[in-house]
């Protein structure tokens, strides 16, 4: 199941914790060169150092995905260092949920900027290289919330629905360039994501809901599954949940 991974150059946004970090660790262990982007540069640097000490190939580049020039620098650095980009994982995201009537406009803007525009900037930075290579794979991270909505989750769900729509549009448009596209929609996974809640009651509810969250390696396995298919097989969508999750 881990064929087709060794030697690939994989750029991951939001690689300083959670899903992005788990994917970086798994892919580096399978022989991929991983390029880690996030704002907490100390974290990605220490992950990259550890992976390199263990014989892997890893590079850390401080990146705020709300700035296109920084996402471009991340991808350009990958190509300058390793010669190409095979996989772009647009993973950075946050989830400060709250009922709309609380008018948490700053939180809405941050979710739109990171969860939607950050994904678009990742596509914009990677696509020109992949078009020239006539090969590549763009993996975007949506959520169960990209399939469903419930009270308190309108804006977060909207951003994750947008990721699925963008991914499907991208899938159809990149056919001429032999580029694969995958959208991964996890359920509750044990990461730092609930810490992005800004409302104390929402944070408390989330902590309870996340009691049966599954480890972040579940996401890494989904990435490995999609990447390790033969090049003529394009796994477009993966949706998974903890077995106990009802939503
Ligand atoms: N955990 C879940 O249950 C779950 C379920 C479905 C989908 N997801 C999605 O999975 C993705 C990863 O989240 P996670 O669960 O792994 O949470 P996490 O542990 O909080 O990780 C979020 C990552 O996003 C990065 N990030 C946030 N804002 C950023 C910005 N402006 N620029 C660059 N990086 C930024 C963070 O890095 P810095 O703070 O260092 O920048 C961090 O590495 C998100 O898109 C989330 O919506 C998670």
List descriptors.
single chain, 247 residues, alpha/beta, seven-stranded parallel beta sheet, 7 helices, globular, binds NADP nicotinamide-adenine-dinucleotide phosphate
Q: How would you describe this structure to a colleague?
A:
The structure is a single chain. With 247 residues, the protein is an alpha/beta fold. Helix content is 45%, strand content 16%. The protein has a seven-stranded parallel sheet, sandwiched between helices. The model has no long low-confidence stretch (mean pLDDT 97). The site of NADP nicotinamide-adenine-dinucleotide phosphate (NAP) has 30 residues, from α1.
The biggest beta sheet reads: 7 strands, parallel
Low-pLDDT windows of residues: none
Structural class of the helices, strands and pairings? alpha/beta
Radius of gyration computed on alpha carbons:
17 Å
Overall geometry comes to globular
List how many beta strands DSSP finds: 7
Estimate the mean pLDDT confidence. 97
The helix fraction, in percent, is: 40-55%
Strand ordering within the main sheet: 3-2-1-4-5-6-7
The share of residues in extended strands comes to 15-25%
Our measurement of the CA-to-CA distance between the termini, rounded to an integer number of angstroms, reads 29 Å
Q: Could you tell me which ligands this complex binds, including any ions or cofactors?
A: NADP nicotinamide-adenine-dinucleotide phosphate
N-to-C order of helices and strands? EHEHEHEHEHEHHE
The total of helices stands at: 7
How would you name the oligomeric state of the polypeptide chains in this document?
Answer: single chain
């Amino acid at each position: 199941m881990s064929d087709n991974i060794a030697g690939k150059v994989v750029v991951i946004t939001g690689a300083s914790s959670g899903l992005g970090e788990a994917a970086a660790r798994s892919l580096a262990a399978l022989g991929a060169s991983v390029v880690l982007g996030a704002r907490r540069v100390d974290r990605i640097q220490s992950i990259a150092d550890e992976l390199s000490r263990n014989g892997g190939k890893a590079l850390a580049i401080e990146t705020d995905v709300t700035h296109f020039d920084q996402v471009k620098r991340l991808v350009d650095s990958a190509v300058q260092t390793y010669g190409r980009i095979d996989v772009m994982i647009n993973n950075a995201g946050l989830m400060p949920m709250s009922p709309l009537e609380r008018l948490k406009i700053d939180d809405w803007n941050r979710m739109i900027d990171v969860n939607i525009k950050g994904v678009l900037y990742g596509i914009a930075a990677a696509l020109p290289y992949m078009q020239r290579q006539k090969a590549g794979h763009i993996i975007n991270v949506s959520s169960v919330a990209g399939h469903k909505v419930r009270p308190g989750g309108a804006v977060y769900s909207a951003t994750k629905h947008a990721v699925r729509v963008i991914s499907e549009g991208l899938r159809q448009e990149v056919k001429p360039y032999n580029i694969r596209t995958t959208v991964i929609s996890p359920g509750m996974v044990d990461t730092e994501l609930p810490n992005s809640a800004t409302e104390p009651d929402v944070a408390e509810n989330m902590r309870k809901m996340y009691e049966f969250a599954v480890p972040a390696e579940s996401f890494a396995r989904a990435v490995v599954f999609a990447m390790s298919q033969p090049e003529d097989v394009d796994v477009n969508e993966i949706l998974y949940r903890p077995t106990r999750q009802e939503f």
